[in-house]
Amino acid sequence: MIRYIFTVLVALVAIHSAAYDFKYAGVCFNVTSATDSTCEVTFEGKDCFSSPYSKDTISIPEYAINDGGAYKVTRIGEFAFNDASIRHIDIPRTVKTIGDNAFRSCLSMTEIDITYGVDSIGANAFYGCGNTTAITIPQSVIYIGSSAFQGCMALKSIVLPFRITTVEDGLFGDCASLTSVTLQNNITSIGNGAFAGCIKLEHIKLPIGVSFIGDNAFYFCESLKSIAIPHGIKTINSETFYSCKALSSVSIPSTVEEIGEKAFGYCQSLTTIKLPMNLNIIGNYAFAYCDNLCNVSIPKGTKIIGDGAFGNCTSLTTAIHPDDVEEIGDYAYNGCTSLHTTRIPNSVTEIGVSAFDKCPKLKDVICLIEKPKAINRHTFSNYANANLHVPYDCKKKYLLGKYWKDFAKITEDAK
Fold it and tell me: pTM score > 0.85 for this model?
């Protein structure tokens, strides 16, 4: 064990004492291939957190000279300019790759012009460049890593190049000034948190080829007014549009089968939403706290209404469940203070805890279940003032059912 620790310490010392191979034109370099005579830009100092570059402008040469040999500069290495005080960077056309975290937290950079020829931008490459207002990405770029521009809080607009197919996780997360985004038709996937926290983004057109939108993709885009989800999407994932408070228009295609947990939670401008015909699952808290949502038509074929799915939707007036619904989750309509009517089909096998609790205006519960299911004291909170409508020849069963018998009036349908 002692020998192992000693070996690790020696390795760490070696790393910190040999941060770069040579220096040329005020820039530090590491040789990446002696055979091909190529090199990469690296950080100044013993590591990426000490003695960062502090020049106003840095011009990277196409070739760096060392010991009489010329090395082609093809890459800006990881953390090369991390936390540097530079305002402007000249990148030569020989550079193909900008590495992970290469310009992370360069707070003095106000504009970034990436030279044509770069084809790959690494993860977190420009993360936290909080004063950058404009970024130009050339058409040569075919890959941009996760969170590459996250936290560029002053960035106002962005145009992605044609060859990009995936908007990676967190790519533009917390770009609080972003108002304009152009996505090309080659885009097929939008990653987790890709635009989360873009609080000024009002509109975005999703290309028709998009088949995946990740969790939290538009989380807290509180100015987003409308969205058309492309045909082909099968799942609206967790918190995809959570707290999009200005969202008033949503188009959901017929291909959607599941709406995930908190997908539209706190979308307080939604007044109506048309759910697709192939929907199977409305996830937990999917529409919770959509307090202006007054009209929802649950399509035939839907099987699960998740826990708190419509909880605290204080403007919702009816909850009509089609004949295929099997589960109404815990707190599904809890706090729906305007709800006056609900229909529960015979297909339902479970009514969750407090499913209709705190619904003081609930007057009519149309329950088509022939054999009463077990409920608790808080499943319905308005027993004393609500009418229960039950199937023909089932009234006696409900009069014997715990808590079902507490309804003000039990009416049996005609034969």
Answer: yes
